[in-house]
Amino acid sequence: MAFNNPYKNDAMPCFTLEQANSVLPKIIAATEQALEDLREARVRMESEQLFNEADAQQSYDIQVALTLERWSTEIIQCGAYPKGFFTADFKSFLPDTLLCWTYGEDEISHTHKVWENFKHRRQIEHPEIYSMALSLN
Fold first, then answer.
1. Nearest to 83 by CA among 66, 100, 96, 67
2. What is the pTM of this model?
3. At what angle do helices 53-77 and 17-48 cross, to 10 degrees?
4. Which of 48, 50, 96, 104 stands 20 to 30 A from 6 (CA)?
């Protein structure tokens, strides 16, 4: 049975490694803002629990969901796929290959196949394979 690639015709852009890395500052900023929003929501919940624990938890859960939804939307607007908690994949020009970034990394240094996930990430050993020069062929 052949693998059906859900990324193949999804209208998301393909990126060279250089292009994906150039978008990272926006993604890192969005991620840092989301983390700050989550920290603030946690502090607010902890203080509100003194008055009504159930309401505080419900309010916190809503704030978390809204923050993660906003983060996901911002990542999609950058042309990447939001994955898990603060991980993003970029479609590459290589067939069935995603460039993978996670919070804490300052550049994209991993890749995996579309049918794999974060735990299957491999270090990019030859960045030139993902460069502009090869993508123009």
1. 100
2. 0.84
3. 170
4. 104
